[in-house]
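fold-stage: in
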Amino acid sequence: MKLLERELDAKVKALCDRFGWIRYHVVKPKYGPAGFPDLTLARGDHFAVIELKKDLGARGGMEDEHVGPSPAQKKWLDAAAIATHVDVALWRPVDLEAIEAFLADPDSVPTPGIWRA
């Protein structure tokens, strides 16, 4: 069975629902940063960054057009793959000075507005 990307996405969505993952799918990638992955998923202590591609030979275009990720997609996937931890925070304007310090050198200062579950 050859699947288009949207068909694969529908199946992944059903699996996420079935197994209790929360999911965000980039609906209109033209409004976001170039190459941002299609899905971000979370469940328990897992956070996943996922790019979807159609099966090779699936209907809907040239078979070799998008064999792998684009250079912009590869940049995002590589960055996510080498990350050793995820910082989660709620930032407000009052945090701007701490935000600047964190973004300049995240290893030297605590994450401002760190979110604790």
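fold-stage: in (second)
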Amino acid sequence: MTRRQGRHISRNVWAGKAEEDWKTQAVCRNNIHYPPWIWFPEVKNEAWLSKSLCQTCPVMKECREYSRINHEEWGTWGGLTEWDRGDRTRRNRKNRKQQPTG
């Protein structure tokens, strides 16, 4: 099964009105010109369109934070793909290990 066939399952950590407010302003939610699967590229080099649309989104920061809190595994969230988020996670772990304690 591919991600485009519905493998993506969101864990809803944010609940209530505040979550819905920012989501209704999202470019991905309001853009009827592009098919929904562009937000879930299957290879890294297919992500250019979703990432460029995210750059125009008024709630890009909220979306990025949502994906971080909910540990979203698949898709483009807040201008970051699953590969970008994985790279950031690895860098953060590496930086924490290199910081002196004491």
